[in-house]
Design brief:
Layout (H helix, E strand, L loop, with lengths): L1 H26 L3 E8 L8 H7 L2 H4 L2 E8 L2 H10 L4 E6 H9 L4 E9 L5 E5 L14 E4 L5 H12 L6 E4 L3 H9 L6 E3 L5 H5 L3 E6 L10 E8 H6 L1 H20 L1 H10 L4 H11 L13 H10 L9 H7 L7
Helix pairs in contact: 2-10, 5-13, 10-11, 11-12
């Protein structure tokens, strides 16, 4: 009996130690990563916030400090400067060009392939009926080097319009104000922004990103990391990528995902489902592969973001997307 009592005492002590370790791990402070995220409230940039709300990043020992920007151009610059560790939704052509010029950035995930979520609109009373009517008119994009900038330039080129006046107007909300007050002729938008005004008949869509076939298979936005952060915080960056991928699946495959987005945006859940199914189906947001590199490069050179194509060695150095586990 004495041996049994001793064994029980030792077992009890072991359980206390194990439970103590478990509590210690659960309460350990998460490692903070700072993010620049283009355009708050949009589906294509929601994954960091949605994953944080769902506790997915926390399960990987991460806390995200999210700073929102007016678009991909600002996101790219913040990441290059090192003021953030990771940039979400930077224009791919601009990233290629910046890397060619020596910018300390790497691609860690694909953002959006195709441009089905982007659209250009006018007030309902505007005489402009299509993108072909924008000669001499001011046409909005977010920031220089952002995905909206690249897609707009491709659209104008496709339609042979050489005298339109592209203007960087920042985020969707500020752009809408400028359009409705007559400061800008044509605005840009991405769901959920503008869908309510569209339903109320206040605006008309005159062009969509999907009208530009050359962008259909191009990854027009990517997620990037500052090179120094990648070197010094490699494990944290790897955990971020894994948590991002888990949130991507959660957003599309778990009914709770769309509910979380609706709370974040905030919009009715039915509208969130419409955005998911109509504008950005799951393949468009796949984080695993940068597609259409040759076409991207041709556009980047044509629009003067790059001098010449990157070599295969440079592409391998730039694109650091981890393999699937």
């Amino acid at each position: 009996m004495q041996d049994l009592g001793g064994m029980m005492e030792r077992t009890s002590r072991h359980l206390v130690v194990i439970l103590g370790l478990a509590v210690s791990c659960a309460s350990a402070p998460a490692e903070t990563l700072k993010l620049a995220v283009g355009i708050p409230g949009n589906w294509d940039t929601c994954i960091p916030d949605v994953g944080q709300r769902a506790g997915i990043f926390r399960r990987h020992g991460l806390d995200l400090d999210i700073v929102y920007t007016n678009g991909g151009g600002e996101t790219l610059q913040a990441t290059i400067s090192g003021s953030v560790d990771i940039g979400i939704a930077a224009g791919t052509a601009s990233v290629f060009g910046a890397f060619q010029k020596g910018a300390p950035i790497r691609i860690i995930a694909s953002g959006v392939t195709g441009a089905s979520d982007l659209y250009w609109y006018v007030p309902a009373a505007s005489p402009i009926r299509s993108i072909k009517d924008t000669g001499g008119k001011t046409v909005a994009f977010s920031t220089v080097g952002g995905g909206t900038n690249i897609v707009l330039m491709a659209m104008l080129k496709q339609n042979g319009i050489t005298d339109a006046k592209p203007v960087g107007t920042g985020a969707s909300g500020g752009t809408f104000t400028q359009v409705m007050s007559g400061q800008i002729d044509v605005g840009w938008g991405s769901p959920p922004f503008g869908l309510e005004a569209l339903g109320q008949g206040k605006i008309r869509i005159i062009a969509r990103g999907s009208d530009v076939p050359v962008t259909a298979n191009q990854t027009v936005r990517v997620h990037i990391v500052n090179e120094r952060a990648l070197v010094e915080r490699r494990d944290a960056i790897a955990r971020f990528v894994q948590a991002y991928r888990e949130t991507y699946d959660y957003l599309y495959d778990d009914p709770a995902g769309v509910k979380t987005f609706a709370q974040y945006s905030p919009i009715p859940e039915a509208l969130a489902i419409e955005i998911r199914d109509t504008f950005l189906p799951k393949p468009a947001m796949s984080p695993y592969v940068v597609s259409g590199i040759d076409a991207l490069t041709a556009d980047a050179i044509a629009f003067k973001f790059m001098r010449e194509p990157l070599s295969q060695g440079q592409i391998d150095e730039l694109i650091r997307i981890p393999s699937r586990r």
